[in-house]
Amino acid sequence: MSAMFHTIAPSYDFFTRVFSYGMDRHWKKVCVARAVLPESPLVLDLASGTGDFSLLVAGRYPGSRSVAVDLTERMLQLAQARGISRAVCADAELLPFPDGFFDGVFIGYGLRNFRNLPEVVREIERVTRPGGLLVSLDFFLPANRWLRRLYLGWLYVQGAFFGLLLHGQPRVYTYIPDSLRTFVSIDEFSSLLRRTGYRPVDTRRFLLGGIGIHWAAKEPST
Fold it and tell me: ∠ CA 12-17-22 to the nearest 5 degrees?
């Protein structure tokens, strides 16, 4: 997976915008606009890609500090070229940060690529301070099985087209529906967050449940 992301890194932002018909930027702005963080927050931009969330948080919270973490060094190099100074190459299942380190964690399109989703959520919860926030934007499986089939088929055709157009390899972007086939629905992910120690958990759905945003607050210490 890391080798594949190294290949697509230079065209990743363009692909994300075009593949979403320009909606990606709006979705990410919604993520940040509804996130309630303290003044000058310390934020983890997990599976950061080229650092969109780091830049959006900096725009809303002057004085904020972001750490971009990704498993692909090429993505982090591109993030640094955009002005993001703190970039760490690390595995989301074993983050090199102490307990309760971050005020907020943002993650875009990364959850379904992890080998062990519950373990990653527990690790995110560990490095988040009590009362801190997790914000996630990702693809999800629509609850209706017929809609699910149509959605996966549409993603496959779109991915193959852009893979051929941008890289001459139709299979490059079909990793999206491939990774989604064994993933969860928006409601199932909400339940996982609650079991891990996040309350309240708020959601917003797009594309009939094919895209979802979660805002989840880690429960305060007792």
Answer: 175
